[in-house]
Amino acid sequence: MATQTVNMLVRGMTCGGCARTVEKKLLATPGVSKVTVDLDGGSASVEYDAATVQPDLLANAVRQLGYEVPA
Ligand SMILES: [Cu+2]
């Protein structure tokens, strides 16, 4: 396991429900071990196994929910 952490901006979260939705989606992504969503700051910190998943895929998973993740 090569655990890495990425902090990505997530725009469009307006309430705790949004934060939980983003958190659940990321945690459901294979290779992700820990997710911390900062609702006020509009970001998510994700610990992941670099051998399993890449930041691009994590960003796309959040985009699928309708939130904006700047590249
Ligand atoms: Cu919401």
Helix content: 25-40%
Number of strand segments = 3
Shape field: globular
Element order: H for helix, E for strand:
EHEEH
Q: What does the radius of gyration come to? A: 11 Å
The bound ligands are: copper (II) ion
Output the strand order for the largest sheet. Answer: 1-3-2
| Termini gap | 26 Å
Unreliable spans? none
Number of helices: 2
> In percent, how much strand structure appears in the residues?
25-35%
Taking the sheet with the most strands, its summary is: 3 strands, antiparallel
Mean pLDDT: 97
Helix and strand content put the structural class at alpha+beta
How would you describe what is shown here?
This protein is an alpha+beta fold. Helix content is 30%, strand content 30%. The longest helix has 12 residues, at 16-27. The chain is globular and about 35 Å long. The chain binds copper (II) ion. Copper (II) ion binds at residues 14-15, 17-18.
Brief rundown of the structure:
With 71 residues, the protein is α+β, with helices and mostly antiparallel strands. The chain is built from two helices and three strands.
Q: Which features characterize this protein?
A:
single chain; 71 residues; alpha+beta; 3-stranded antiparallel beta sheet; 30% helix; binds copper (II) ion
SSE diagram, text form:
Layout: E1 3-9, H1 16-27, E2 32-38, E3 43-49, H2 55-63
Antiparallel strand pairs: 1-3, 2-3
The structure holds copper (II) ion.
